[in-house]
Structures are given as C-alpha cells and as structure tokens.
Amino acid sequence: MVQFPDGRNMLVDAGNNDDGPAVVSYLKSRGVSRIDYLVATHPHEDHIGGMDNVIRAFDIGQVYMPRVTTTTKTFEDVLLAVKEKGLKISSARAGVTVLDQENLKVNFVAPVGTGYEDLNNWSAVVRIQYGSTVFLLTGDTEAQSEEEMLASRANLKADVLKVGHHGSSSSTTPAFLKAVAPKYAVISVGAWNDYGHPHKETLAKLANAGVQVYRTDRDGTVVFTSDGKNITVEKLGSTIRPRAPDTGSMVAPAAPVTPTRSGGGYIGNKNSRKFHLPSCSTLPAEHNRVYFKTREEAISAGYTPCKRCNP
Ligand SMILES: [Zn+2]
Ligand SMILES: [Zn+2]
C-alpha cells in the first residue's frame, strides 16, 4: 500500500482469499476510500486472492496487470469484480509509466518480456521515486526476470527493496542485489509457511550486503515514510489475525490432490511441523523436509496432518 504526498493511493497486491476482509479493514483504518492505482503483480492466489474484496469495497482508478491469464477461480473472481465495476485493465510491463511528476515518478521495470513459463516471472515490478528516495516492489519475480531487468539497463538502484517471492532462494540473485543495493529490505511472508520462506540463503545474502531486513512474519505491518530525502521505518505489529485453518475451499494452483497412500510415505515440514502426502500442493522446500514411512511415525514425532491433503 503506497500513499503519495498528494493523497492518492496505490495498492500493489491484496493477499490471499482469506486475507481480503483484513486488507479492506486495514485500508479503511488508514483512511483510504479510493485506490487510484491498483496493481495485481501476477495472478497467484496469495497476491490476488483478496483483490475482488478490495475492488468491491473501494472506489478504484486504474487497474494494472501483466498480460497473462490463468484458469483459477480466484483469477476469474478478480476479472468479474473488474467487469462489475466497469473498470478497464492496463498492461503492466517494463517501460509503462504510471506517474511522471517533478518529484514523483512511478513506473514498471518488469516484466521485460513475454511467454514466461512460471507465473512468478510475469510479476509486475514497480519502481517509485519520490525526491531522491526510491522503492522497488518486485512481486514474485525470480532469477530469469531479474536477469532481464539487468539486461534492460533500467535504473534498479533503490533504498527499499520489497524482496522477490517472499525471500525464496529462486529470487534475489547476487547481480540483482548488487544493482539494487538497498539500504532496507522488506520480506512479505507468513509465519510458519509451508515453503520455508524466507530461505536462509536469501537472508544470508542480505545480511552480507549489510541490508537492514524487515519481515512481516515478525514485524507485522511495516511502514516506510519518505520525505523525499530521508526514510523512516515503523513496525506496527500484526493487525491481522493468524491465518484461519485451511477450509479446503481455496483454489489450489497446483494439480488436484490424488492421495497416494501406498508406498509414498509422508513428508513433514520442519518449520510448520505439519505432514503431507507427497502429492500435496503445499510441500515444503527440500531443505525443510523430513520423511516418514508411516502416518504413526509422523504423529509420534509431534507432526500434525495438513488440512489440505488430509494425510
Ligand atoms: Zn507469492
Ligand atoms: Zn507467485
């Protein structure tokens, strides 16, 4: 959520399906009634799930999305809300300017190309320059898009980096981090998530580069304020209740769950201490896995069954 000096607002992503109402009430608590610029970085559920709620709750100006579609219900919900409000979608891609004023410039530096296999690399990357301060919001961009941004010779230098893909090791390549050279980084990440985000490799890179890191799982809402020269940071703690148990009503982006109880064993997540079927759509990263032969073994080790795959 970005509030410009003239009172205009920009929202970049809106959390997952369950987050929608919390996002709306947070924005209202910040006195927002109109979102002048709404950006859906890419059509993954954790970024656009709450966006239909936002579109219905506020007066909306321009909507930006990368030119890619997907067949999930959550994406269709967003398109339906856009249509109901009579809004048009503008293309988010490198070179598109949102605002160009003397002291304030907002533009996209990615996606540079098209045809990406992974939706993450379609992520719209927003660059905001106010006075001499710069913010770079990267969605879930991964190494491929980072490389293309570097090759495009866009000015990537920023004071604040919204770290790509929740701190995954598939993003924040050394060359990209060197070009951005941020003073502050913020990682948007759920506590005890099943992906092991943020990955320790990314945290190590940021620490080695002397970047001051904020994390929403620990700091809650993080607010950066720029006067055009200096940036101050506030941690507001969490205004959002912990994630409700998965009801199974969310649309999983991955393949349907087909239990393979025979011979497959079970995969535990060292962080969340949940265990899954090997076919679950929310398996942890390799380095956070622990393998069990039987269900009993997982339970006696103190692991609880995942609510999505019901192992
Ligand atoms: Zn994401
Ligand atoms: Zn994504």
Summarize the structure in words.
The chain is an alpha/beta fold and 311 residues long. It has 2 domains: 236 residues, Ribonuclease Z/Hydroxyacylglutathione hydrolase-like (Metallo-beta-lactamase, Chain A, 4-Layer Sandwich); 58 residues, 3-Layer(aba) Sandwich (DNA Methylphosphotriester Repair Domain), CATH 3.40.10.10. Helix content is 22%, strand content 26%. It has 9 helices and 18 strands. Strand 10, helix 6 and strand 11 form a beta-alpha-beta unit. Helix 3 runs parallel beside helix 4. Bound molecules: zinc ion (2 copies).
Structure in a nutshell:
The protein has nine helices and 18 strands. The chain is α/β, with parallel strands linked by helices.
What topology does this entry show?
Elements: E1 2-3, E2 9-12, H1 20-29, E3 34-39, H2 45-48, H3 51-57, E4 59-65, H4 73-84, E5 89-91, E6 97-100, E7 104-110, E8 125-130, E9 133-137, H5 143-151, E10 160-162, H6 174-180, E11 184-187, H7 200-208, E12 212-215, H8 216-219, E13 221-226, E14 231-237, E15 266-269, E16 274-276, E17 289-292, H9 295-300, E18 304-305
Parallel strand pairs: 2-3, 3-4, 4-5, 9-10, 10-11, 11-12, 16-18
Antiparallel strand pairs: 1-2, 6-7, 7-8, 8-9, 13-14, 15-16, 15-17
The structure holds zinc ion (2 copies).
One zinc ion binds at residues 44, 46-47, 140, 166.
